[in-house]
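REQUEST FORM: STRUCTURE PREDICTION
Request ID: SP-0412
Submitted by: Lab K.M.
Chain count: 1
Length (residues): 608
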Amino acid sequence: MILVTLVKAVPDLDTMSFDPVSNTARRSDDTMFLNPFDARAALVAPTLVGPEDSSLVVSMGPAGARAPLVEAMAMSGGRGILVNDPALAGSDTWVTARVLERVLRPLAPDLVLAGRWSTDSSTGQMPAQLADRLGLALVDGARRIERTGDGTVEVVGETEEGWARYELATPCLVTVGEKIVRMRAPSAEAVEAARARSVEVRSVAELGLSAEEVGLVGSLTVVRALRNEEPHRTAQVLDTGPLPERIRVAAQRIRELRSRPREPAAAARPPPEPPVTGPGEVLVFVSGADGGVDPDALPMATEVLRLPAPFHPSALGFGPLTGSDRERLLSAGVGRAYWAEGPAGWRAAESLVPAVSEVLAARTHAAGGLFLSRTWTRELAGRVSARLGLGLTGDAVTVTGEAGTGLVFGKPSFGGGLLAEVVSKKSPSLATVRPGSFPPARSDRRRASLEVLPIPRRDVPVRLRRTGSGVERELRFGNLETARVVVVVGMGVGGPDGVAEVVETVRPLGAALAATRKVVDAGWVPPQLQVGLTGRSIAPDLYLAVGVSGKANHLVGAKRANVVVGVNSRRSEPLFSRVDVGVVGDWREVLPLLVRDLVETEGRSSGG
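STATUS: Completed
RESULT:
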């Protein structure tokens, strides 16, 4: 077996600067390090190869990527290939996948490993683009990988609801999540041995590509602007004096802030009557992996109707189209649906790529295509992007429309502190959209009926079979999309018992529960409760962070919250510069008093 591990050298977000002309990061050779997710892939690699197998580590990057590559070689035991060329600077994920395809295809790997995310972009879309270019099956977010000995691989992967188990025929590509292995540095002896092995350096020309096909020139997406996305809140931090007095002041301030009128979402335009096929059509993929309509996808359709004319949404989906699903689409402002009808049931993302690609390829007039950023739909969007040569923006949180430009997507970048405005050089431009980024789906004026245009089924061989699935931890506590109050737990609550104690303490507030990525990765709460750069974006009236450090990559998910309150025992945490109200202290002492006062102020404000 030939195993290839893909790794990326990423910049230090705290010391990184930007080129104001190209809107790309300046990557200093001495501050780059191995992407932590890719490091886990490198640590897993030795468990999958035998004495007769070969292992390679491949990276694309500047000269500063060599040291992280050698570190990955020390972890995996493999030899290294570095694609290094000045022409590659500014390459988007589509170009990156194209370059890596040129490296991997002659190698004919049986198994390709990669990290699920990179800390600088966090899109998770390049592996799907590469998998489609190489014709490989893909599983994203593996927590366990085993070779079965008969040319197949068994993988347990993470899903938004918990986990799923798959069987894949090789060759295939698997990305790994944080749970697959405990992070550890390679030994000094392993690093020295890796340094002694040669690193093969490839240029763009040696891969048969020209400088015009890579870098900023060859990329299909362009970052036209970067702006500061740090939450702008005036923090009142209460860290001295008797705790009951501090709690009283905090509760009063929270009440004042919550009484402010919130800026309403822009009104959605009525859908065109009758539905039109024109330059402003935006195809919104609305189905979940089991078919039908995913309600979390519908806000994307209504958001399109908040853009200026002529932008308007059409739905794209598969599976049964029930009467209630038709009503949901009409209520969201959809007048037309391109639909592959059929029975409900799980479908591999690659099985839908031909049909979805056919619809988009036939509608070059369309402005764009939107996909909800879930594990399954990120793969679908990435494969369609690779198949059609269309630009793809990952994890967008805003969308605007401009005459002559088309759709402009806003995407948090570099730890969530910056928002990149991304445009595509070709239409339709594609994007995955983070769940919860837009207000709930609702169009005040709707069509009387839904026009359904059938999509021909395109049956394709699929080398991925799902053999089981389940929920990691069944913990139901409110609805993150509709709750007025959300309590988010961080690692500072100490463990699952601490989470349960927080839940019980805040129960009088009628709050929903959320968590940081580290809490989810530790298995304390299920993945669907994660908020932040690689999780959900929500907009509650009150966002109460307990034991949270407060880094930008988490709080970007709370940007639309009306009031953000933080409780932590460490005054030095960045949380206290990014909240409206902060209370320094042990959460077990602070939270019961704060909840009591908040409940009392709620009662007084309502006349109770």
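NOTES: Residues 604-608 have pLDDT under 50 and may be disordered.
Reviewed by: T.R.
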